[in-house]
Structures are given as structure tokens and as C-alpha cells.
Design goal:
Radius of gyration: 26 Å
Largest sheet: 5 strands, mixed
Structural class: alpha+beta
Distance between the termini: 62 Å
Shape: globular
Oligomer: single chain
Number of strands: 18
Helix content: 25-40%
């Protein structure tokens, strides 16, 4: 049977004009048969342009994406993260508890800050203001001018919180005489720390350093911490993972929304406080009122818990799993398991979101704080599906929150079934960011966060969503490629 072409079908009887999208090699056969071709250069949207334009990096990605050595290392790192059991074991002063907070570093004058390392002169306004406030709190200077001179003269050592197994929200300031939460991973024995949450308004973490800020910090040291220490002695150790898991079922994502987690913690503290002897009832009432009025009180514990889980995964040779994401208002940095002491840094992005009345994007500082440790651990922005109400704070819709969580499965090593999400049929949260997958898909890790005013002391001006810069991940990928090439 011989097929015939209908006269109405002009495809093979008239001049052929072809639009070729993709490889130019597809054009050759058409040109050989006198066809007309218009070539359009195109790459899939999931391929990062920086990778496309860098042949070496493209080859590195192609080599590492299926590297069995890295896959095996990631399995070890991810299992250590999953196995971690963060437990609140106490409260102490930073100088007595954090590693390397004593010694001859600037005569003991050391202040820790959020994000990767940065010089004083390069810091953003809120972080500089918070450091001045910490100097006044410590009594190293009596005026703002004298405090600034101490830093400018190099008499104060400035170091990232992460270098001392600690994390702090926003400016992230921890000075020697500040009380800190002590969280132990009972599985591996590693310990992490965080400062205590001051509440909202004019607070140190947003760069405020007025006398009322210092007065509150003194009260936290002299009343809040000692009172809670007595209560914790009655309560005993407190498992943090179950509180976080339950809070996810109650509408929190334990980063920007901690209403449920703080309430759960308040119940445990109150119950133990009623059984605690030799406690000042006036101080206890003030402490309970302070906690009850601070929906963010659990945030710092959530951060310390996430830090302990991720530190357990750090230091696995060849692992491409991300173990920290942190911002200092100027730079965004990540660390990966294979290089636990190395930062991969890019400019910190701005946050897109909702602003308080009277403020706009023009007032905003760049992304700031160590609190992205929560996203690194699979909660926060990665678990927004559990917290539909968070969109009223950061923008978007409940459907957007679910979509953001689903997208993160494309760049992670697996699920954390200890953190289940009701909106996803109680499936586990996406966790274990793999730098290879981030570069391969160009899907950047999502972060929901508060927005600080770019000037010190004004405070929070909004909240929203941002994404980790892809450049951090391409740098980490290149470093992995170097050690892979040495094998």
C-alpha cells in the first residue's frame, strides 16, 4: 500500500521554515535539505546560568552528581542528623560555658555575632549597634562613643557565634556575661548554645542599645536566668525535639512562628515552678509574665536544637550536606559537612515581604541572623506547609506555603520523619540540603525571616521570605570538586 500526501498538506511541498530551540546540531539535517532554520539559544530554567557559563563547574557538577563516595558520605551525615536528640540541660553564662570564650583574646573582651566572619567597618547598622550595646552591658565603656572606640582600636575580639557552637537571632550578639541556653545532643554528646530571647520592640538583636535595653539584659542575667535555673533543676532535662514536632502539628514552623512551642514550654516551666522550693515568688511571677508575653521565646531554643542536630552531621569527609546557613546583614554564608570550618560566602539578599505601617523596602537591612539554622535543619521555611497562618506575617497564601515546602524536596537528601507535616499527609519535612542538588536545579533554599531596619535601634520593620544565594553553593561545589579530583 502506497501512502499519498494530500494536496492540502503543504508541510512537505512548500519551503520549510524551522524554529530550533536547543542544540544547534539539530539544524544541520534541515540545512542540508535547503530548509530555513532560526536557532534560539535556550537552557532549562533549572540550570544556573553561572554553571552554564563555567565549563569547569559544569563538568564538576556532572562528575559529582552521581559520585558514590559523596552519596555514601551523605548517608552517614544525614543519619547522624536524624539520630540527634537535642535536650535542654541547663543555663549558664557564656564565659563559663561556651568554648573559647576565655583566655587572652583581647583580654577576655570578646563578642560573638551572627553570620560568617566580618570586620567591624563592614558590618551593617543593626549589628554595630548591638555590639555597642553589649560593650555597655559588660561595663567595658560608659558611653556609645567610648564603646565604638574600643572596637575601632581592636580592643574587642569579634567572632561568629558558629565558631563557638552557638547561634543567635538577627545581630546574634553574645557577650561573656550573657546567659545562654545549653543544649546537648544526647546521641553524639555534642553541645550547642544560644542566647535568650528578649522579646519584641527595642531589643539588642535589632541594634537597640538604650538604657532600657541594658536594664532588660541585666534583669535577664540577674533574675530570668537564675529563676529558670532553679525551675530546670526541678524539671530535669527537657527533650526539645518532641516540643518542636508537636508545635508543627499546632501551626508553628518553629522559626518565625513559635506561639505553640512557646506555650508548650510555658506549660512545662509553670508545672515545674509550682513544685520548686526556695524560689522567690515575685521573681517567678515576673519571669512567667515575661515568657507568657513573648511568643518568640522558644525561637532561641529551636535554633540551639537545630544547631546540635546539624553539628552532629559536620565533619564527614566528602559529604555535600549543608550544616549551616547564616547571615550578618552584609554576607550570606554556608558551611557543608566536608568542610566544617570553612565558609562559602556571597552577598546577603534583601527580604521580600510585608512591612509594618510606615516602613518600606527602602528602610530594610539585608538578610540578617543565625536563625536560618532552622531551615538548614528542615523546619522554618522548609516546613511552612505546617504553618498556614505564617503567611499573614511573611506574605503569600497557604497554598504558597505548601508549594514552598514541596519545592525543597528537590534539593534535600531525604525526610525527617520526626518532624511530620499535617498538610502533607503527615509526611516528614524535607531535610539535608545537598549542594549538588541546589546547583543542579538552581532551586535555592527558602528562608522566612524578620526584616530589621538598616539603622541600629529602630527594630523590626517587617517580615518576609528570601532565598539563599546560589553563589554560595557553586563555591562549595567547586571545593568538593577539588578534593574529588585529588583522589
Amino acid at each position: 500500500m502506497i501512502a499519498t500526501i494530500s494536496p492540502k498538506n503543504t508541510l512537505l511541498t512548500e519551503d520549510l521554515h524551522v524554529l530550533n530551540i536547543g542544540l544547534k546540531g539539530f539544524s544541520a539535517p534541515i540545512l542540508q535539505h535547503n530548509g530555513n532554520v532560526l536557532d534560539l539559544e535556550w537552557i532549562p530554567t533549572f540550570i544556573d546560568i553561572t554553571v552554564k557559563n563555567n565549563a569547569n563547574l559544569s563538568w564538576t557538577l556532572a562528575t559529582l552528581i552521581g559520585d558514590t563516595t559523596i552519596d555514601a558520605a551523605n548517608k552517614i551525615a544525614f543519619e547522624r542528623y536524624l539520630a540527634a536528640q537535642p535536650v535542654l540541660v541547663g543555663i549558664g553564662l557564656a564565659k563559663d560555658t561556651l568554648p573559647n570564650m576565655q583566655g587572652d583574646l583581647a583580654n577576655g573582651k570578646i563578642i560573638l555575632h551572627a553570620g560568617p566572619p566580618i570586620l567591624w567597618k563592614d558590618m551593617c547598622g543593626p549589628q554595630q549597634g548591638a555590639i555597642i550595646g553589649a560593650i555597655l552591658y559588660e561595663g567595658w565603656a560608659n558611653t556609645h562613643e567610648d564603646a565604638q572606640k574600643l572596637v575601632e582600636n581592636g580592643e574587642i575580639t569579634l567572632d561568629p557565634c558558629h565558631h563557638h557552637a552557638a547561634v543567635g537571632p538577627m545581630a546574634g550578639i553574645i557577650s561573656p556575661n550573657m546567659p545562654v541556653w545549653i543544649v546537648k545532643n544526647t546521641t553524639a554528646g555534642n553541645i550547642s548554645y544560644s542566647n535568650m530571647n528578649e522579646g519584641l520592640g527595642k531589643v539588642l538583636r535589632f541594634g537597640a542599645n538604650s538604657s532600657d535595653v541594658i536594664t532588660r539584659l541585666n534583669w535577664m542575667r540577674d533574675v530570668l536566668a537564675p529563676t529558670l535555673t532553679k525551675v530546670l533543676a526541678t524539671l530535669g532535662t527537657l527533650d526539645l525535639k518532641p516540643i518542636m514536632a508537636q508545635a508543627l502539628h499546632m501551626g508553628d514552623e518553629v522559626h518565625n512562628r513559635n506561639m505553640a512551642a512557646s506555650s508548650l514550654l510555658f506549660k512545662k516551666i509553670t508545672s515545674a515552678a509550682l513544685r520548686t522550693d526556695n524560689i522567690d515568688h515575685k521573681n517567678l511571677a515576673d519571669v512567667l509574665e515575661f515568657i507568657a508575653n513573648n511568643d518568640h521565646f522558644f525561637l532561641n531554643l529551636s535554633m540551639a536544637a537545630c544547631k546540635s542536630m546539624l553539628d552532629a552531621a559536620a565533619g564527614v569527609e566528602n559529604s555535600s550536606m549543608v550544616t549551616a546557613m547564616a547571615r550578618n546583614g552584609v554576607q550570606f554564608g554556608i558551611q557543608i559537612s566536608a568542610f566544617p570550618e570553612r565558609w562559602f560566602v556571597a552577598p546577603a539578599p534583601f527580604v521580600e515581604g510585608l512591612f509594618f505601617s510606615g516602613y518600606s523596602q527602602d528602610d530594610a537591612a539585608r538578610d540578617l541572623g543565625d536563625s536560618a539554622i532552622t531551615e538548614t535543619a528542615g523546619v522554618g521555611g522548609f516546613s511552612m506547609a505546617a504553618a498556614p497562618a505564617i503567611v499573614q506575617f511573611v506574605g503569600g497564601t497557604p497554598q504558597d506555603a505548601i508549594a514552598n515546602t514541596l519545592k525543597m524536596f528537590h534539593i534535600t537528601l531525604g525526610k525527617n520523619n520526626a518532624f511530620t507535616l499535617p498538610a502533607l499527609a503527615f509526611g516528614g519535612a524535607p531535610a539535608g540540603i545537598d549542594v549538588r542538588k541546589v546547583v543542579d536545579t538552581s532551586i535555592a533554599p527558602i528562608i522566612n525571616t524578620g526584616i530589621a531596619h538598616k539603622q541600629a535601634g529602630i527594630g523590626q520593620v517587617g517580615a518576609g521570605i528570601t532565598f539563599a544565594p546560589l553563589a554560595c553553593f557553586t563555591l562549595a561545589l567547586a571545593a568538593l570538586g577539588e578534593i574529588s579530583g585529588d583522589k
